[in-house]
Amino acid sequence: xxxxxxxxxxxxxVYLRPPRLADARAFLAAxxxxxxxxxxxxxxxxxxxxxxxxxxxxxxxxxxxxxGFLVVRRDDHALVGVFNFSEIVHGAFCSAYLGYFGFAPFxxxxxxxxxxALALDVAFRELxxxxxxxxxxxxxxxxxxxxxxxxxTREGYSxxxxxxxxxxxxxxxxxxLAEDWRTLRRNHHLRRERSA
Length: 196
Description:
Number of helices: 6
Distance between the termini: 22 Å
Largest sheet: 9 strands, mixed
Oligomer: single chain
Structural class: alpha+beta
Number of strands: 9
Strand content: 25-35%
């Protein structure tokens, strides 16, 4: 069975680490400040109780079904965004879903691009996945651009796929395979360090 990643995965400008209850104040403030950025596409935890449930699901290093990471800027430890692997399945499937969102005012500065490259490296090298799938609403141009920039391949369109903010939403389906990432990883000039 693949091992869960160490506490922090460090890149050139950002690092990834699991969420902690101590992050609640900063996370909830970032969520509040990012409502316009998130629009109709995502509903991050916005109360202390919802954040605690988020940490219980994605911050537990013993879980083999979920793995979550906060994207943190190295310079000042500001919360930049989130990457979550859900429904991790091994065996013949070796796959997971990846969800993500960024925080204002860091959008458009390349932090999430670096963070996603680090997250994909964890998925394929440490979690030993073969496939990572993202599902993105067609009007979410920033998220679509991020997935395309990293090299995800569009595989289809899912009508009324997920209920968000009380409405069933269509999604475009993209995937990245381990063999894709072995080639694409070089394009992202990925430099990883470990931090305890």
